[in-house]
Design brief:
Two copies of one chain form a homodimer. Chain A has 359 residues and is of the alpha+beta class. In chain A, 31% of the residues lie in helices and 23% in strands.
């Protein structure tokens, strides 16, 4: 049980005017308890609040022996959830609800007056999760170090005629040999014009001379995620257009990173990168946000985008991933993870960004 | 667009006192539109109701060109859902909500008075889905025929020293060679005492003489699922205890199936099988429900269990899967899918249930 993480979330709940909350997102429950429980469609909640000892309410199907230092309340499929919550939730106070709680549980709690009122309280937990503590930062750093080392091995898999899928299928073994447990998301391997589809899924396309080779990949180390993109060239030097696009994306990546420190609006970072790409004439072809927060999940609450004006805080970890995608190609993306520190930032990926011709 | 399926659900909504509903479950939307959309955390809903033309509300990220015969209303991440729903949902009427809709959308709709009141309406859609029409029945039948043919091939993979995982890994290729697209759930391959864990995951355990070999497997054919279990013996005839358990489970399976017809309580089918196992002295070792409904998803709404008193209806498809699991082994399960017909039932699996010694 990570009581310091619970306490951080409870303090942020107070800012929302809430004294209690049912945390139901399995990743948030892992964050606080150190235990993954995947309840499928069944009820699962950690009740937290000011001056409350947390209680974990879970279906008996997911029983476990380990003492995690808090009360576990087991329920059966035939139990009435609202009966179980009596004595756990204070009916005289408003209850924070996780944004993803299933409507059937919320409607039942409303009908039975489980609390005075119900309010989306996820922001408090999301805000706590967005500020990584020293232990979490260490795992994020290590996950990205493994990703750097893996990138160096992935590029050795590249050869004429190999398919995107054949390379993608070998990645998990490499990650595991380096100490990671899994992919943090299905790897993107894009050859040639596929690089101009930011969400391309590896297929049976075979590599040919002159192709771009884009890897957008990440792994999980002790439950924390990495995520990096590099764009290579196969056998031939890039064309003039490819070079211009590559260098524009690189400059957007590096100048956005250079401005990082605590207390700046996340939208201003997106603007920096977007302005560079727009001034180079490629604005319409940078079709996604600059970055996303990351931690236990590859995508966590928090965007580096024009629509997200929250300020950076020390302990934030997010991606900086500008890209230019001309319809029909070429496409390029360069992505690092970064950590906001007390007085600036730390880039978590050291894999070089110079133009690299393979083969 | 399958308007006859929408109309079936709208008629059942009426029984719940509802004139409109937001269907948000992707499988239910596939059921009605023929289109799979996986919105992740984003808003997705099909609005249906009496005298209403259905409207599909989806994020512009999931745009598609195909004309499915109904209006598509695209929204952006920055849009206010409640604004979009004005003119689609009647604010003077109660709105049915899918049981799995995310709390954040429901809370926002409540705050903005999108409807007069909100009610769990999933039962209407679930009830429609539980009654398979002729086209769906055909696909269910074919999916199970493939499963029968696959079972005959799976048993040829069994040899001394092979591991559970090695067999499991070869199954998808066999399914695909027979015309299926995927597993309907991760296959269970259990050797020896692992058969007494009904949810065992295939591991590196190697097969040895005298082991039980249990396969609980299913595939997807044109989006519909199959699911069957057979228990074999490797090289040696079963022991007396193994034989008694096997024959008890087989009798429970066959007698439960023999009683099937429309209009009987689902709990009475569970009782029939459970009584047979209990009378044989193994009651405490039949630790799960007798069966579950199945269709587009491997597990759909509807149980064959003591807690589920709904009546069978023509067009229902569900599993009949009694088992006996002695702690430490042996364990046996025999499972078929069945279809309730106008005047009785049809068993969808023809793979024999006689004791079969492999090797």
């Amino acid at each position: 049980m990570h009581m310091e993480k619970v306490n951080k979330a409870v303090a942020f709940l107070k800012d929302l005017g809430l004294s209690q909350m049912l945390v139901s997102d399995p990743a948030a429950i892992f964050y606080m308890t150190g235990r993954w429980i995947h309840p499928g469609e069944r009820f699962l909640a950690l009740c937290i609040g000011e001056g409350k000892a947390p209680v974990l309410v879970l279906n008996e199907l997911f029983q476990f022996q380990e003492d995690i230092g808090i009360e576990k309340r087991y329920i059966k499929d035939t139990d009435d959830i609202t009966e179980v919550l009596k004595g756990i939730v204070d009916p005289e106070e408003t209850l924070g609800i996780d944004k993803t709680m299933q409507a059937r549980f919320l409607l039942a709690m409303m009908e039975h007056h489980t609390a005075k009122a119900f309010q989306n309280g996820s922001f408090a937990v999301d805000r706590a999760r967005a500020i990584k503590d020293a232990g979490e930062q260490e795992k994020m750093i290590k996950a990205s170090k493994i990703n750097d080392a893996a990138m160096a091995q992935f590029k050795t898999l590249v050869r004429d005629g190999v398919t995107e899928k054949e390379i993608a299928d070998q990645m998990l073994g490499i990650y595991q040999s380096l100490g990671a447990t899994d992919h943090s998301f299905p790897p993107i391997v894009s050859f040639g014009n596929h690089a101009s589809d930011p969400h391309h899924e590896p297929d049976d396309t075979a590599l040919k001379e002159g192709d771009i080779v884009l890897f957008d990949v990440g792994c999980v180390y002790e439950n924390y995620c990495s995520d990096m993109t590099r764009t290579f060239f196969w056998k031939n030097e890039p064309t003039q257009e490819e070079r211009t696009i590559y260098n524009t994306v690189r400059r957007a990546n590096e100048e956005a990173e250079a401005m990082l420190r605590p207390g700046i609006p996340l939208c201003s970072i997106d603007k920096k990168a977007r302005d560079i790409i727009t001034e180079a004439g490629y604005g319409p072809y940078f079709t996604h946000r600059l970055g996303h927060f990351i931690g236990i999940e590859d995508h966590e609450y928090g965007d580096v985008s024009s629509a997200f004006s929250n300020l950076t805080e020390a302990g934030n970890t997010f991606s900086i991933e500008p890209g230019i995608y001309l319809p029909g190609g070429p496409g390029t993306r360069i992505e690092d993870l970064v950590l906001i520190t007390e007085d600036g930032y730390r880039r978590l990926n050291d894999y070089p960004k110079d133009i690299e011709v393979l083969g």
